[in-house]
Amino acid sequence: MSGEAVFHFDGKVAVVTGAARGVGRALVAAFVEAGARVVAADRDSVGLAETCASHVESVSSIVSDVSTPDGAQAIVERAVKTFGRLDICVNNAAVAPHAALLDERADVWDRVYAVNCRGTFLMTQAAARAMIAGGRGGRIINFSSGAAQRGAAGGAAYASSRAATETFSRVAAVELAPHGILVNAISPGLIDTQPKPLPPGMAERLAQRIPNLPLARPGQPEEVARVVLFLASDAASYISGAVISVDGASSAGSRFSGVVVDDDIRYDWVTGRQTKSDASARES
Ligand SMILES: NC(=O)c1ccc[n+]([C@@H]2O[C@H](COP(=O)([O-])OP(=O)(O)OC[C@H]3O[C@@H](n4cnc5c(N)ncnc54)[C@H](O)[C@@H]3O)[C@@H](O)[C@H]2O)c1
Asked: Please, which residues have CB within 8 angstroms of residue 73's CB and are 6 or more apart in sequence?
């Protein structure tokens, strides 16, 4: 995020998983800019080091796997041991392999669910326990995807795993509300996070898809990060159990051509009066 921070998190501590690239990297930068101290976690040590290189003062990095109980616990413990508290936990880490349903492999399916669902559960549970022990409430922000709402081919494992995190987040919001912990989910549309250059097939598919998006462009990681910061801020003190789309209207529809055609011109739809005979309507 560039320019003056919109939200301020001085004295607050945030965990960001999946911090080695993409949205996670933007989240670390945004929280640091807004005054938070951050635990940046990922399984990818090289990418994680790149993310943290320019934030050494305020970031503690940890190479850890969110899909294991020990991995999730280690991330949360790092926040409490290094910074003395945990206020915000952003469960952004995910894997997104796509395959045709008839070719889908059980081991890949299990890995997707282990990271995207079990990881979100384990991190939420560990973070909530630490927040309850801290006695100051907290914010947990999980990740879904616009793909969770569609039957997009190739997304049997990924899209259904993201739908599961939406439902999980609602349950967590209800169970953790008495502790002052608010839980929400972000549902991004197409976000420009892929390392460049893109593989040729992917570049071709995106070149076809992007002009049909309502805004005719993908979102930037910083545009997702800003909404996460809003949900983590005092401005969102009465939002919990929500799924917030950050998708430039792609869940609402596709690119508007600028022309509206009323297919049935035989009626004035306000008065109900016939405006043209069937015969003349057929001619026009
Ligand atoms: N990019 C998009 O177009 C898009 C669209 C919809 C939803 N999303 C969601 O937004 C979030 C961020 O997406 P992104 O494109 O930045 O993802 P990304 O693939 O660029 O990065 C994900 C990060 O998670 C890490 N990770 C994976 N498994 C892990 C594990 N077991 N333990 C720890 N770290 C692990 C990876 O190493 C990687 O750094 C994800 O939750 C994704 O489902 C993204």
From this structure: 122, 126
Give, for ligand 1, the residue of 46, 95, 150 to mutate: max count of ligand atoms closer than 8 Å to Cβ: 95
Atom 25 of ligand 1: nearest residue by CA position: 18
CA 83 to ligand 1 centroid distance, Å:
25
User: Would you say 224 and 186 are in contact if contact means Cβ atoms under 8 Å apart?
Assistant: yes
Question: Which residues, judged by CB distance below 6 Å to any ligand atom, belong to the binding site of ligand 1?
Answer: 17-18, 20-24, 42-44, 47, 65-67, 92-96, 115, 119, 143, 145-146, 162, 188, 190-191, 193
Is 88:134 a contact under the CB 8 Å cutoff? no
Is 113 one of the catalytic residues? no
Q: 64: CA distance to ligand 1 center in Å? A: 14
Contact predicate 244/232, CB 8 Å: no
Sheet arrangement for strand 37-42: 59-63, 37-42, 13-17, 88-91, 138-143, 181-188, 243-246
Q: Are 66 and 72 in contact (CB under 8 A)?
A: yes
Q: Which two tokens stand for residue 27?
A: 């989240």
3-state SS, residue 218: coil
Tens place of pLDDT for every residue, the chain, 284 residues? 455 678 999 999 999 999 999 999 999 999 999 999 999 999 999 999 999 999 999 999 999 999 999 999 999 999 999 999 999 999 999 999 999 999 999 999 999 999 999 999 999 999 999 999 999 999 999 999 999 999 989 999 999 999 999 999 999 999 999 999 999 999 999 999 999 999 999 999 999 999 999 999 999 999 999 999 999 999 999 999 999 999 999 999 999 999 999 888 888 989 999 887 666 666 65
The helix (run of H) or strand (run of E) holding residue 244 is strand 243-246
